[in-house]
Amino acid sequence: MKRSWKYGLSGLALLALIAIAYRPATQFHRFFLTACAADGPVRETELDIDPQAVDLPQFYSELRAAADGRAVHELAQAQYGDERWPLLLFSPSESSAKKSILVVAGVHGNEVSGSLAALRALSTPAHESVVLHVLAPANPVGLRHGSRYNALGCDINRDFKAYRTIEAQAIRAAIERVRPSIVLSLHEGPQDGVFIIGTQSTPESLLQAITTALQARSFPLAQKNNLGMSLATPGTMVEGGFITRAKSWLGIYSLGEYTTSVGVPLITTEAPWTLPSMADRIQMQQVVLETVVSELAKP
């Protein structure tokens, strides 16, 4: 069976069964169909997540230290109450590399390993043929308050059509500025292991290389995705044309829908927040990044 049909059928099953097979319809509506479902950066109480607290001023200091000579661009500022936090894009000052990766770290503030992995990304050794850009933190208010949402109570990853949030605007601006070969968005979820999500243009060979690298480090590959549906290939999910069209029909406008519209491949990482070791969850994110760099560097 061709890849497009295989993932189209699994996507059909996913969309048909999602509301009854995993979460009540009210939760599906909240987490997937509602862009701004909360009253500010509230903590999640339904997904069995207990995000570790992050000292945000210290995190910014560590980001700038890890940047080590990179150019720092302030794309926007997120404000909540009396506090203002910049959304920063770290880019090499000079590079002749023909390929580039944009890492988007921490779209959901309570998925902490995704944000903290930005420090590892900034420390990834440079490669002559691949340049690395890092946008972090993508949701500083959410990270500050341990929340999925931003100051408006919006899920940034549902705002890539209306662009009512400055965070989604900043991510779009970073993609327009960098024009990356691929975007890597770092997330976590409640599934039983790590998995990655590719879009239509993400090379299948790249996804296979990533899962092979994760297995080599003895990291468990998820058998089910974060919606509780079985994965046809452990550790891997592909949002093909059917899922993309279905999400658009349902009004789910995620980063993947935007990158697909501009012809940029996207890989979303989903580390398991059920894993007690934050160090392991961060390392999973790093393995994915290192593998993407290695694969893009090949002639």
What report would you give on this structure?
The protein has 299 residues and is of the alpha/beta class. It has one domain: Zn peptidases (Aminopeptidase). It is 40% helix and 19% strand. It has helices spanning 3-21, 25-33, 56-67, 112-122, 140-145, 166-178, 204-216, 241-250, 255-261, 278-296, and strands at residues 71-80, 83-91, 99-105, 130-136, 182-189, 195-199, 236-239, 266-272. The protein has an eight-stranded mixed β-sheet, with helices on both faces. The longest helix has 19 residues, at 3-21. The radius of gyration is 18 Å and the shape is globular. It starts with a helix and ends with a helix. Residues 1-9 and 16-22 have low confidence and may be disordered.
Structural class: alpha/beta
- Helix percent reads 25-40%
**Main sheet characteristics:** 8 strands, mixed
> Which value, in Å, is the CA radius of gyration?
18 Å
Summarize the structure.
With 299 residues, the chain is of the alpha/beta class. It contains ten helices and eight strands. An eight-stranded mixed sheet has the order 1-2-4-3-5-8-6-7, with helices on both faces.
What key phrases describe this protein's structure?
disordered N terminus, 8 strands, Aminopeptidase, globular, alpha/beta, 299 residues, single chain, eight-stranded mixed sheet, 40% helix, 19% strand
